Amino acid sequence: xxxxxxxxxxxxxxxxxxxxxxxxxxxxxxxxxxxxxxxxxxxxxxxxxxxxxxxxxxxxxxxxxxxxxxxxxxxxxxxxxxxxxxxxxxxxxxxxxxxxxxxxxxxxxxxxxxxxxxxxxxxxxxxxxxxxxxxxxxxxxxxxxxxxxxxxxxxxxxxxxxxxxxxxxxxxxxxxxxxxxxxxxxxxxxxxxxxxxxxxxxxxxxxxxxxxxxxxxxxxxxxxxxxxxxxxxxxxxxxxxxxxxxxxxxxxxxxxxxxxxxxxxxxxxxxxxxxxxxxxxxxxxxxxxxxxxxx
Amino acid sequence: xxxxxxxxxxxxxxxxxxxxxxxxxxxxxxxxxxxxxxxxxxxxxxxxxxxxxxxxxxxxxxxxxxxxxxxxxxxxxxxxxxxxxxxxxxxxxxxxxxxxxxxxxxxxxxxxxxxxxxxxxxxxxxxxxxxxxxxxxxxxxxxxxxxxxxxxxxxxxxxxxxxxxxxxxxxxxxxxxxxxxxxxxxxxxxxxxxxxxxxxxxxxxxxxxxxxxxxxxxxxxxxxxxxxxxxxxxxxxxxxxxxxxxxxxxxxxxxxxxxxxxxxxxxxxxxxxxxxxxxxxxxxxxxxxxxxxxxxxxxxxxxxxxxxxxxxxxxxxxxxxxxxxxxxxxxxxxxxxxxxxxxxxxxxxxxxxxxxxxxxxxxxxxxxxxxxxxxxxxxxxxxxxxxxxxxxxxxxxxxxxxxxxxxxxxxxxxxxxxxxxxxxxxxxxxxxxxxxxxxxxxxxxxxxxxx
Lengths: 295, 451
Fold this sequence. Notes:
The structure holds 2 protein chains of 2 kinds. Chain A is α+β, with helices and mostly antiparallel strands.
C-alpha cells in the first residue's frame, strides 16, 4: 500500500522535473523580446480602445509608435496633446502640437425644420433605413434620427434630443475619436477644430440638391445661393454641388456669412450675443427685399 | 424562321424557394383597361439601371406622343419619351420609391390625345407578323430598341439594348421570355399574355433575331393556364416554345428561370449571357415588337393595381409618368383600412411614401395592403433552425450573411458570397425569429467596400 503512494509521488515528481527542464529550454529558444517601451507608452494612453487613432486598440497603437520611431501621422485624439507630449518625452521624440477636434452635426433637419411626411416602421437603425428610403422628411442627405451615432459613441458624448429628433454632441465629452463619423451612413458628422474659446462656424447641411428641391424638404437647407461665398473676405467658403462649405482653417470667425444666409443654415456656436444693430438683421432673414447689400 | 425548337432541358423547377400565398384573385379576372389620358405627367429621367438620361427639351417646348424628352447619356442608359401630346411645363425633381431623388420632365396635355381603344390598338392590337422578320438586320433591331428607350419591365429596368447587343465572346443560343410573374398579387403580365399574346411572340422572335439566338422559349408559371393557352395559339407555327413551369417563388428570377427551362446554371457573379441565354420580360417583348414593327417608343406600360386595400382592383395600361394617386383614383381610391402602398409586389416591392410618385418603366404593379398583411412580429434571436438556408434559391446562408452585415464583417460577407444575393425575400419570409434577413443583406451589399 505504501509502495503505491510512494511510486506515484516519485513518478509524478520525475515527470514534473523533466517537463520543467524541457519547458525552460523551449522558453529560452522561443523567447520573444518585446520592447519594454511599448508597456510604458500603453500606460500613458487612455486605454479606451476606441480605435480613434486608426489602430485596433491602445496596445496596437503603442506598438505602432515604438516601431515607427517618430510621431508623424500618429495621434491619439482622446489623450490629446498632453498624452502625445508625454509619449514624446518617454521616447525622446518631438510631438507636434495638434489643434483639438470635435464632432459637429451638419444637419438641422429637426422635426420642426424638416417635417416628417411618412412614417417609418422598419428596423430602427440608420444604416438600415438609409438603404430603404430617403428619410421621414424626404431629404436624402439629412439625419434619419435613429441614433447609430449615439450607439457608436463610447464616451457618452452624444444623445438623442427627443424634441428635435437630432443627436446632440456634448462638447466636454467628445474626444473626436471618429466613431460617429464612421457610423453615420450619410456622413453627416465632421471633425472640425474646436476653435478659439470653443467658437465654431459651420454649414449645418450637406444637401447637394438645387435650392428648390432642397428647400421643399427642409426649411433650413443650404440652397447653394452663394451669398456667403461673396460675403466672406477670407476665401474660406467654397460652393461645390450647390452646397457651401466653410474651411475651418481659413475661417476667421467673423460671422458675416451667418448674417447673409437666407435659410439660416450656417450655425455659430458659443459666440456672445450680437450687438443690437446686427440682431435686427438676423430677426428678418427671410425678407426677400434686402438684395442690395452687396452693391 | 430560324428559331428551331431543339427542346428545353430544364425540369420546370429549381431547388429550394418558397410557396407564399399567391393572392392573385384580387385582380386576375379584371380585363385590361386603358387609363384615360391624365392632364399632366411627370417623367423621371432615370427609370433604369445606369446613367440618367439628359433632358432634351426646355419648358414650354411643344411635344407630341413619342417625342424624345431625355436622351440616353451612355451605353448603359435609356432615353425617355413623352406619352402625351402637349407642352413641357417644367424640369423638376421627384422621389422614386427607392428614395432616390431624380430629375424629371413634367408634361401637360394639350389638345386631342390618342386614348382608349385607339391607344390599345396602336400598341397591342391588330395583326402582328411572325414571318419575314429575318429581313431586319440585328443591328437595325438593336438600334430601334435603343432609341425607343426600352428597359426590362420586370422590375430591375435594365436597358434592353445592352442585353440584345451580340457579344462575340459570349454567343447566345436561346431567348427566354419571362412570363412567370411569381410575385404574389401581381397580374399585369398574366393579363397581357392572355389579351395580347401576338406582340409578345413577335417581340420574342425579334429579340432572338437581334441576339442571334436559335431557340425561343416563353416560360410561364403553371398557375396561368389561360395565358399558356393564348400564347400557344399565337405561337402556332412560329417555332416559339411555350413552356409551363412550376408555380414557386422566385420562379421569375432570371437565374431560377434559366435553370428551370433550359437546365443551365448561371455562374455566381455572372449573367444568363454567360450560359448563352438572354432573358426578357413578356412586357418587354411586346414593347420590342411595338418599337420595331410600329415605331412606338416605350411610353405606356401595363400595371396591376391590386390588393385588399384598393376599392376596384384592375389591370391598367397607363402612361409612364402618371402619379400613383391618379392611377389609384381611377380604381376607386383606397379603402379606409388601407395602410401601405407598395411599388411592386409584397416580396420585393418598396413602400411608397408619397402618392405623387410617378409610375416608371419598371413599375409592374401597385399593391395596397391593409393592417392584416403588414402586421409584423418583434425580432428575436436566431434559433439556428436553418430554414433560411433551405429557402434560399441560390443556396446561400442568409443567417451568416445577415450577421456579417450587421457587424460590418466584410471579409465574412465576401466569403459567403453576399453579392450573389438577389434580394428575393425568401429568407425573411420563412424566418421564425422575424429577423429582417433580406434587408440586412441588402444593407450589407450597399455598404460593402469596393475591392
